[in-house]
Amino acid sequence: MKIEKQLDFPKGFTVRKVIELVTINERFASKIYFKTESHQCNGKSLLGLMSFMLMTTIGEEYTLSVEGEDAEQVVQFWNYFVNKLHEKIPLSYWEEEGAETVQEAMCHSMSVLNSSVRSVAKSYLKTGKKEI
Length: 132
What we know:
CATH class of the largest domain: Alpha Beta
């Protein structure tokens, strides 16, 4: 059985979620592919799926293509998995405080960079030097 489903790329993928997805996809007998107009990857390949997730923007249309005897189960699992992406994990008081502190520090560090630091960073990135 072959099932192709057009979907919009969801928000909420992290490296941990991609690893979890590949681990579970490997348990299915079906062939699983994710496709956009410019990319295609095997849903059981960690590197393939990781690059697909990086190259696909949130809301972009993609196709989930599943071929095999358990194709319906794969599609049901995918729907369940995507819905779970949006569930918030409850954090303790100290975890929430830590997350807020890190976020504030990151925002502050982005505003501190002056034009000369940005210029050096840009030239470093353009030349591909390994050492400064």
